[in-house]
Design brief:
With 217 residues, the protein is an alpha+beta fold. The protein has one domain: Roll (Nuclear Transport Factor 2, Chain: A). Helix content is 45%, strand content 17%. It is built from seven helices and six strands; from the N terminus they run αααααββββββαα. Strands 1, 2, 3, 4, 5 and 6 form a six-stranded antiparallel sheet that branches. β5 and β6 form a beta hairpin. α1 runs antiparallel to α5, α3 packs across α5 and α5 runs parallel beside α7. The longest helix is centred in the middle third of the chain and has 22 residues. The radius of gyration is 17 Å and the shape is globular.
Length: 217
């Protein structure tokens, strides 16, 4: 059950408990290493740092707010949240007033942190492996970092991170479960239902409620 919750939290949790249990059987790749990324593998380094912080979160006995505070710097460093949000909203993002964009980004950031904190709760025994050698992505200039999340029960989930270079170095712009389920695509489908009028206020409120629900879970 823990493995199924993890899948929901990383990609499909925003839609509720979607029917994706078949993904839990994804086998691990033999070449994955638990060692730190080799020199020159700059794209994989943010993923390793994120997983290190998630391990600390699972070992922490602090409150939800304290664990969120612990994880937030790693989320900010690993993700290009503005690009993820823009791609998740789609073309309608251009029409959002600047003031609303800032509110939306702040709430999306809080939602992203809360989702991870909720799914990597204290007492968890997940193990993380990161392939130090990224592969080229279909989009020129982007790379894909492959990882595995292994639960205490031995189940394994393949999680691929699409990375691009920004002012902060290599950052995540999408997360792929089982190599092909795009978090951005799932979020675009979900966000569209809260953005039918062209006003971002319903989406901001929806993300706020989801964030609160994660903090109370």
């Amino acid at each position: 059950m823990r493995h199924f919750e993890l899948l929901s939290g990383l990609c499909l949790g925003i839609l509720g408990m979607a029917a994706v249990p078949t993904l839990c059987a994804t086998p691990a790749r033999a070449q994955i290493s638990q060692a730190a990324p080799a020199a020159g593998s700059a794209a994989s380094a943010p993923i390793s740092r994120l997983y290190d912080l998630l391990t600390q979160v699972e070992h922490s006995q602090g409150s939800f707010a304290q664990r969120a505070q612990l994880l937030t710097p790693a989320i900010d460093q690993a993700f290009d949240l503005e690009t993820v949000l823009r791609n998740s909203v789609g073309l309608r993002y251009r029409s959002i007033p600047d003031a609303q964009k800032q509110q939306l980004l702040q709430q999306f950031r809080a939602f992203t942190v809360a989702r991870y904190v909720s799914n990597f709760a204290p007492g968890g025994t997940d193990r993380f492996t990161v392939d130090p050698t990224p592969r080229a992505a279909p989009v020129p200039g982007e790379q894909i970092v492959h990882s595995e999340i292994i639960t205490g029960g031995g189940g394994s989930t393949a999680v691929d991170y699409v990375m691009h270079q920004s002012g902060g170095g290599w950052q995540i712009v999408d997360v792929l479960l089982n190599g092909n389920i795009s978090q951005v695509a799932v979020q675009r489908a979900d966000f569209g239902s809260s953005f039918s009028t062209g006003d971002a206020t319903p989406l901001i409120e929806s993300l706020r409620k989801k964030t609160q629900a994660f903090s109370e879970s």
